[in-house]
Amino acid sequence: MGTIPGLTFGLIIIAIVLIIAFIDAAPVFGDWLGRIHIGRYSDRRVWGTAVTETGMKWLTRTPKIKLTDNTRLIVLDMLRGNYTRPAIQHWQEASLLLGFHSYLSHNSDPKAEAAVNALIAAKFGGGGKWIHPPQQVDGAILAYGVMKHSAERPEAYRAGMDQMWELIQEHIGEDGTVKYRKSMQDYRYVDTIGFICPFLVVYGLRYDKPECIRLAVRQIQEYERFGMLPGTSMPCHAYSTGTKYPLGLYGWGRGLGWYAIGLIDAWRELPDGHECKQPLEEAVVRFARTALAVQGEQGQWNWTVTRPESRADSSATAMLAWFLLNASQIGELSGECAAAADSAVSYLMEATRRSGAVDFSQGDTKDIGVYSVLFNILPFTQGFCIRLANSKDQ
Hints:
Helices cover 56% and strands 4% of the residues. The chain has helices at residues 3-34, 44-59, 74-79, 86-106, 110-121, 139-149, 158-170, 191-206, 210-226, 253-269, 277-293, 314-327, 334-350, 379-389, and strands at residues 187-189, 236-240, 246-250, 361-362, 375-376. It has a single domain (56-389), classed as Glycosyltransferase (Alpha/alpha barrel), CATH 1.50.10. Helix 4 packs parallel to helix 14 (379-389), helix 8 (191-206) packs antiparallel against helix 9 (210-226) and helix 10 packs antiparallel against helix 11 (277-293). By secondary structure, the chain is mainly alpha-helical. The longest helix is centred in the first third of the chain and has 32 residues, at 3-34. Strands 1-2-3 form a 3-stranded antiparallel sheet. The chain has a two-stranded antiparallel ribbon with strand order 4-5. It holds the Pfam family Glyco_hydro_88.
């Protein structure tokens, strides 16, 4: 009888070990299974339908993106609360909303509309305020996605958009530009351009706040001034406002992507004739020249775009394809940019699993100059592929 408690304890330990092993093994097995027959899409309409249908499933159940690159003892990250963060999820959800704005602009789909409304309803409560207000400026890109879907109801989420503007104002530094984090007073990240600039332009236009538009343009122009490799439009990861030194890597693929989408969506949102339209258009032309010069032979951009031998990154490719597709509206860039965007979509089709999930996006960045070595599914990439697939220009 005395051996039964010991036996029970042993069985509990075995069960715990098996559960931990399963948590570690399940993603690896899922990736292996999902990548069988990857890249079999040859028809763009079929591919567009597949990526859109997968994205629709993720609208109300967005996959969690890991903070770390750990592939062993993942349960420890979960227990420590170090597995994911709301700020990371915000830009995943934002991209899906932007993708479905493109889709619903050209398609009537009650199921997709219901999924979009469910995601927005999960974020906003009574009076149009955030249920859980974003604590970081990353949330501005999600606010931008919401504003795109509520254009016909400008007051519906006005209170929540005001909250976002207040948060951004709290992050404005002494140099008049927006910090990535309050704890990093002197650093300006390229990511911030993608997070805040389109939101600031739409918010400024919708609610007659020209100072918001000026801030967006200043953020971009100051990055051009201090955050680019001299003589190019190749951004580094960040720069110091004090020393003006570059920080991190020049040519980080998703860094180019963050700059690209912040610039192009801000430019697209401005009406013709606006005083800020031409300065941004000139920046679009400059950056397009750089992006075209570092595109890979297969249509991709690598995680380090200046190194042809580095691994391709689907997230950078989708973002830069969106940039070039829209930049092709500018006469002097038209043919070259359209061809490059077309080539990028061909690469993304090759990186798409048979389930319709686009694979091989670089994981979350750990710090300035510390980049993920994992490449997997990223809902953010999926959203931009949906934008590409449902663009009237594609």
